[in-house]
Amino acid sequence: MSTISPEATNALNVKDPSLYNEDLAPVPKEKRNWNWINYTTVWMGMVHNIVAYETAGSLLGLGMSVWQALATVIIANIILIIVMWLNSVAGAKYGLPFPVLVRASFGYNGAHFPILIRAFVAIFWFAVQAYAGSMAVGAVLGALIPGWNSLSAFNILGMGLNEAIAVALFWILHAYIISHGMERVKFFELWAGPLVIVLGLGLVVWAIFVSRGLGPLFEEPSTLSGGEFWGIFWVSVTGLVGTWATLILNIPDFTRFSRSQRDQVIGQAIGLPGTAILFAIMSIITTSGTVIAFGEPIWNPVELLQRFDNPIVLILGAFALLIATLSVNVAANVVSPAYDLVNLLPQKLTFVRAGLISIVVAIFFMPWLWFDNAGTIFNVLGAIGGALGPVAGIMVADFYFVRKGNYDLDSFYKKDGIYAYKNGWNPKALIALGIGLLASFIGLIIPALQQLYTYSWFLGIGAGFVSYLLLMRTSSSGQEAEIEKAPPTVN
Asked: What's the short name of a Pfam family annotated to this entry (predicted)?
C-alpha cells in the first residue's frame, strides 16, 4: 500500500505568494465571531445615510405619491435581500472574501477584470458618500464659526474654501477609522447605525406635527400619469438596487466572519430590508412634510436642518448625519476596494494600506461638481447597477449550478489548480461578462432600444447568469465544469 510523503503533502498545499496573504486567507473558525446582531447593526449603519435618505426622498421630487414611493422601496429591497443572500453563502462557508471567490469563475488572472470594475465603482461611491457627509461637517462648522460661510468666496477646484476644508476633514476621519482594520469597523458599526434612527424619528415627529397628523402626508397625490409612473418606477427600482450593487458582490467580505449561516441570514434579513424600508419610510414622510411646511420637497437632510434656523438642532442633526455617512462609507465603500487592491498586490499591500489608497483615489472623482440633482442620482445608480449586475449573475451561476455549492479551497491559491483554466483566464466567464455588459448598456448604445436601459441591472444579472451557465455547461473541458468534492476543513 503506497503512502504520500510529508514533503508531497506539503507540496499539495503550497500557496502561491502572488495569490495569497493573510488578508486573503480563509478566516479561521475561532475568529469567525460576528453574530446576527453585528450584521443587523452593520446594515443599519449602511442604510442610514445621507444618499439613501436623499434617494428615497427624491422619489417624491420625481412626482410619486407617498404610497407609490413606499411600494418602490419595498420591492427594490425584497429583490436586494434575495440576491444578497445568494452571494453571502460562500463567504460564510469558506471564510473567503470576494476577490478570492471570484477566481473560481474567472480564473486567478481573469478575476482582476471584475475586481477592478468593482473597485472602481466602490471608490466612486465612496467619493459620493464622503462629499454628502462633508456637507454635514460644513453645516456644523458654519453654526460654530463666525464668518465660516464667507470663505466660499475663495475657490478651490470648483469648491469654496469652506467646502474644501469640510471635505478634507471628513476624508481624514475615514482614514482614522480604517487605519485600525476590520475590528474597528465592527465596533464603529455597532453603535453608529442605531444613532441615526434617533435623528430619523425626530424628523418624522416634526413632519407629523407640521402636517397635523399622518393623513395629509399620505393624501398628497401623485403628479404622474400611468405610463409616466411605470417608466419612473423601473428606473427608480434599478437605481435603488444600484445603491447596493457593490455590496451584492462584496458581501462575502463581511459574511466570512460569520459564526454561522444562520447568523448572517437573520442579521441581514433584519438589517437590510427591515431597517432600509423603515429608514425610507422616515425619509419619505419627512420629505412629504417639507412639501406642506415649505411648499417644496426638500430631500437633502442638511438643507432641511438648516431650514429650522436653530443651531442646536443643526449641530445635533448634522453630527448624526456625519456618523451615519462615516458608517456606510467605511463598511460599504472602503472595505471592498481595500480587499480588491490587496488581491492585485498581495505581497505589497495590506488591508489598511489599500483602504487608505482607495480614500486618496476617490478625491479625483470630484463629486462636488455634479452631485445635488435627483435625476443625476438615479442615472448614476442605474449605471453602477448595470456595470456590476453581470458579475453577480456569473458568481451565482458558478457557485450554485456549476460547482453545486462546493469549492476546492486549496485551488484558490494555486496556479495549477482547477481554477487555473487557460493561464489563469476563463474565456467563457469573460464572454459572459461581455454579454451581460452589452445587455445592461444596449439602451445607451442603440437609441431605438433606449427604454431597455431602464432595466439595466436586471438585464445585466440575467444575461450574465444565463450566458455563463450555458457556456460552462457546453464546455469541452471536464475540468472547467468539474463538480468538486467537499472542501478541506479550515483550521
From this structure: Transp_cyt_pur
